[in-house]
High-affinity zinc uptake system protein ZnuA
Amino acid sequence: MNKLFFALGVTALSPLALAKPVIATSIKPVSMIVAAIAGDHADIQQIVASTASPHDFALRPSDIKKIHNADAVVWVGESLEHFLEKPLENAGKEDSSIEWMALKGVTLQDRSKKHEEHDDHDHDAHDDHDDHEGHDHDAHDDHDEHDEHDEHEGHDHDDHKGHDHDEHEEEGHEGHNHTGIDPHVWLLPQNAVVLAKAVTERMMWLDSANAAYYQGNFAKFEQGLKAKDAEIRKDLSAVGDVPYIVFHDGYRYFESHYGLNNAGAVTVSPERKPGAKKVAEIRHEIEENKVQCVFSEPQFSPAIVKVLIEGTNVKSGVLDPLGSAVKVDMNAYFTFLDSLKGQYLSCLR
């Protein structure tokens, strides 16, 4: 009897029994949302390094291993992270992964069209903005032009099988292609809540013993984000009329939501460097629109920004759309929004 009791005790304390769910995340903003819900109850394995950009990322063998070993994979979507499509399929986890852009209730913006007015969900927006039509999608069109990573396919998958959840229909991938859709969905607070809800449901499924913990974290996140959103809106209202130019066209969710005055972008896709004609056009826009600041990004060389503002009184600043310096913890997404707000204010005031 004692031997049986001892054996049962060892089983209960075995590494398998005590192991935390392993969640593979694509980029840092995704890790922030997962951490807000999972806390220290999950092992978060991020694929794209915090200092790298998903626009020109190439998977390594260690990244493929993270996908195979994960209990769940959380990513933004094919139009941003095309390099994940084949590995997810090869690992048998394409359908069970959580694809942010395909979640029911997520708001997407179409950057292929120009509009004089913002989408209905934004408040106090300025008529000066272009390209800010919001959409609430359950299914989406074909993705845009990030197809340079086809060669990075996953390897034969191991014995760790992906979970197939019929009950998670909102995480399906039958409509995950997005032509002209801006994939930077993490820059809209409401979208963060949509992902947080999906992560909460998945964590409850993977670790039902701690379901109340995950539900509580979601409630705290939702409440805290509402307060943070109002705070940022108030602080940025002071610079809403100040024109500026960004390095790449990736901030429209944040800008339209908070009513900022984007006068243009150096490039649509950061891996595509502007030619001499484009540089001349931007210089003209800077003068014509009385642009106060041109923003670069830490993930890319700021050389082009220096060229654009040379000989002018225009200031330069840095916007970090991935929060590379933010520590991933339960408050990371709030810290990220605060840091982005501060980056705008530091150059526009």
Summary: The two ends are 75 Å apart (CA to CA). Confidence is low (pLDDT under 50) at residues 1-17, 115-177. Residues 88 and 94 are 5 Å apart (CA to CA).
